[in-house]
Design a protein that fits this description.
Helix 16 links the parallel strand 9 and strand 10. By secondary structure, the chain is an alpha/beta fold. It contains 17 helices and 11 strands. Helix 1 (8-16) packs across helix 12 (402-413), helix 5 crosses helix 6 (241-252) and helix 8 packs across helix 9. The strands form 2 sheets. It has a 9-stranded mixed beta sheet with strand order 1-2-4-3-5-6-9-10-11, with helices on both faces. Strands 7-8 form a two-stranded antiparallel sheet. It has helices at residues 8-16, 54-57, 135-141, 188-206, 215-228, 241-252, 272-295, 306-322, 335-345, 352-365, 369-384, 402-413, 421-438, 443-446, 462-466, 488-498, 519-531; strands at residues 88-96, 106-114, 123-127, 154-158, 234-239, 257-263, 325-326, 332-333, 475-482, 502-510, 539-541.
Length: 547
Amino acid sequence: MRRAVALAGVTALAVMGTGAWLPGVSAAVSPSSEPSSEPSSEPSPSSPSSPDLSRYYSQKIKWGACEGDGAGLVSGSDATAVPKDKNIRCGKITVPLDYAKPGRGKVEVAMVRIKSSGKPRGSLLLNFGGPGGAGVSGLLAAQKEFEYLGKGYDVVSFDPRGVGESSPVSCGDAGTQEPEAGGDSDDPAAVLDEMRKINEECKKKSGPVLPYVGTVNVSRDMDVMRQVLGDKKLNYLGFSYGTRLGAVYTAQFPKNVGRMVLDGVDTLTEDVAEQALVSAEGRQTALDNFVTWCTHNAGCVLGTDSRAARDSMAELIKGLDSYPLQSSDGAEFTGQDVVDVLGQALYSRQSWPALSQALGALLADGDPRALLRMGGSLAQQAQQAPGGGVRGRAAEDVPADNMAAALMAVNCADDPDRPDADSIEKEVGKLQEEFESTSAIFGRSMLMPVLFCFGRPAGTDYIRDDVRDVKSPDFLLVGTRGDPATPYRWTEETAERLGSAAVVLDNKGDGHTGYAGSKCVRDKVDGFLLYGEMPKDGSSCGVDEEE
């Protein structure tokens, strides 16, 4: 836990994994009073027993050119602009801050729409995951990936409340600062005190929207979007965390579910500690698959014995943590730096050859530069891809830490468990042993999410208790066997929990989610969304042949 506070933002992104893929409009939130203790899940917009939400459901969205000189994104100093296209438009809708008490304030939610290139049959709403992934910039950066679906749908995405251009939350610099000199960050009590301070900064920096983020409210926002877009049913494609969002929607609005696909299925029941432990296990499985692949290829720097290679990887990281490499300017390269790059590279099988070469340079010559370059490149791709929080001219007011802050806020809002400080301090040692026995490589860094929610109010118990046995039309769940972030067993568990409406497609491949990496998965998902061709429950996709 030596680097606990400094790693808070980084390891947060590693817990649930950002979306399947690696400028929208300005948004605002009106002031409010204290939130209700439990977010409302009442699906009716204006029934006699619920607040009148008709003004939100009857609003009209005004579409216009996406900001950024009317061209769209500009990422960093590179003018990677979205072409000016009258079929690409941004807009915003207004939703209540608190659905139980709409008078408390409102939130403006940023949206983007790419008009169908064929005969439109309505809208297809996308969520790229996170939680904390910005959908506006994400869809603008990945238009070509959804061109085929765009033949039948207006493809739409959005920045969930608290994310991107929709009243972004922030913790300022608090979540990424190194522990103060002389501080004892090996002391669990000291780390919890730092977490408490970070959460106080989050409250100050985020404003009134912070207590109202979370999946239950965002699901309700999606139903407002459905109505405003003119759709009787919600057609939806959600990746990673977006599967949690889709599952909650099926429970809140079962009669409004259209064609829905959930790819990279999230858990609905496990607490933060168990999620982190399972994610550590998933990353270890993905690393084992990489090592096996490498050792079966000629010239692999790890040798030809996969078991010996796994042991060597663990020893390498342990050794670098004890004796870091130092550059001429005094910068250190540790084992945890290797872990960071591994965590990114294992998301896509396409990164494996480059990872093998970079590890070869480190092992053969003690040269970490190739790994550092790879880590930087993968991080840049993650920022520029859907779910990665691309920032352009239209998003220049979005805080740099928004994605990490939103991830923490949503996961805490969705988790009702809040152990006290005494319980955490007593359990940390035992947890550390459990995490490291699960994965000697990833266990250490995955422990921190257990502490993220300390000092925050307990979250909703609606997801854990009530999202089950849904009475919606059949929808498709895609699970990938080698997924490092959302392990396949979560697909099976979530399908069983949701009931007979959940149809499972078993993807035998590697990487996070299936749509981007498997032609078979893409064909089956497109076939269902466009033509209603639902795969048989339990059918599978094999590993794509390598080119």
